[in-house]
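Before anything else, study the sequence and fold tokens given here and see whether the fold suits the sequence. Record follows:
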Amino acid sequence: MFPVSQRWLEALSLARYEPVVQWSPDRGNTWHDLTLHDGSITAASTSQVRWTARGLIISGADIGRRALSPYGARIRVFMRMHYDRHTIETVPLGVYRVEEVSQAGLRPGRAQLDGLSLEAQVQDERFHQPRTLAIGTGQYWATTLIKEVLPEVGMSWRLGDTNIPQLVEERDRWGLIDGRSRDPSIAKSLGGRVFCDSRGSFVAAPVPTLEDPAVWELAAGPGGALVEPQQTLSRDGVYNQIVASGASENGQPPIGPSVASDDDPVSPTYYKGPFGAVPLFYTSKLITSLQQCQTTALGLLAPRLGLKQKVSVSSLLNYALEPDDVISVTMPDETVENHIIDSITFPLTGGTMSMQTRSTTSPAGGRITIEGDNADYGEGTFDE
């Protein structure tokens, strides 16, 4: 959760919010105010682009190739809470490159904007020719590859670190940094993720687990924030084992594998229980030690454990919440569950916020077991 005062949390039920939207023609060197009439923000840890602005209806700027347009303009969004005439508190809600601007069907002087956070720019700027990375730390190379595209952005490193081996990448810059589930990325080899935060800076952080402390408490029923929490349970994307190994290089045997398993007998996804064993295989040339195998296996297992469900929130809007936050939910039957927020959508001009969360009746996030026989796991390629 974005750091806010206790007063913010206590004032949610009576909050008077004011959205603030600004645009920049010069990569954030100068900012100009816009008037917001409608729109929403979605933040999702399950997406390669964490922050998305959809349907922002704005006025107060010229629209065109040399003004507010998809050809280099950025927008940033904030939400202010007014405590009284003289006291406000503000949280950021993302920095975006403008993806599309349309004036069709709107009042004169208004336009509709869509935007994506700055991971999209790094993903677009692929290598023109194969790129050789010398031996260096993960932090050095991840930061270097990002700042070659966005030299003005900050980078916060919250992971452990180790040297990565020399390697050659054909095209995919973002696949080296974080990437999709199949990519042998620096972040995955260190058990973490790289993403843009709500301020527009990049962050390298560990994958959260349900054992992390809850940052907010919700209650269902009369007087609570939840209105009939709707559970849509699914096996899709739920794995209870990760088999991680290093790639074979120069005729040497591969490192690992290490197997992270949900081995808590009371967990609904216990790998020896009715759910069954559902392994996910991952091989990376960036894994060079057994410790990295273990870290990678745990990092890949954590976001795939847990029962997926949707939770609709009414009456309270908390714009400080972020993806990967752990929240405590008191259900109508008075049971208390921890949920990890996978995605959250905020309306900017009133309404309800909705979250997609993961929860499980077990606090276990999976524990490492070591298997020595690679043949037990096929060839160790990624198989989903």
User: Anything to note?
Assistant: The longest strand covers residues 88-102. The chain has three domains: 6-117, 122-206, 210-384. Residues 109 and 223 are 42 Å apart (CA to CA).
